[in-house]
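In the current project phase, we have settled on a layout for protein records. A sample record is reproduced below.
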Amino acid sequence: MQTQSSRWLGHGIYLVIMAILISGVYFAGQKIDYTWHWERLWPYIINTESHDIVAVTDGTAVVDASGRLSITPDYGDDPQIIERYDTLVSRNGDLIFQGDTVARIDGWRFGPIAEGLWVTIKISFISLIFAVLLGVMFGLMRVAHGQVWRNLAVTYVEVIRGTPLLVQIFIVYFFIGTVFDLDRFTAGVAALSIFTGAYVAEIVRAGIQSVPVGQMEAARSLGMNYVQAMAYVIMPQAIKRTLPPLAGQFINLIKDSSLVSVISITDLTKAGREVVSGSFAPFEVWFTVAALYLVVTGGLSLVIQRLEKRLSASD
């Protein structure tokens, strides 16, 4: 058992190691003559600057009695209507050319990195739900009595685990997505769910088979049928045993979601690439992207640890 002094010593050694690693990164930047510009990054996370509203066509500015601004085109197209703004730049009757600033919106708004983080969280959360459903279904099929169900489950698991996720994303988007007219986001969710579901299925199968056979026999002897025994006796025990590997798989899902950027979904990784080209601060951007991924995966890991402790306390 650790003493108080040994714990403090461990914390001290840890801080020294982290200081060495951070110093190494800093001096590496100095060695390659890199100038850090963290101030460039902030507007791409939360932008507090005014947002210009520009005209999309040539025309005439019209401001009605309610203050609504519209641009009447010179060639009879539909007018550009601007209902929300904070500062009016153009006046009633002004001649407007395409690209001119006609109004501004004050206040803060999320930048591309924050928006990309939200897309990553959303696509990961939705994919996680469907992956669990697929994993439980095919995991139960893996231990079913019917040979047909076992064969189907084995085929699904082996095919999906034996092919790269990147290839599956392309197949789902360009082939299945074309057949069923799926948008990019739906195709990305489908690919991630199918891929992760195969691994969840094997984790569920291993968890079910780790429960002693006598548990099923005891449940059946009490008058339960197979489905009741699975639902009330086997699965609750299997879930407790599978939480640690499931946590690892869910964390992998969040990291694997970065691959959906190849089908032009602006997730955190794709947003990072776009910001690098605009900010000329590649190291700052990628360190920030990595930190945001770490925050999301760390939060998920913490939630699962709390759930694991609560389930173990209920024994």
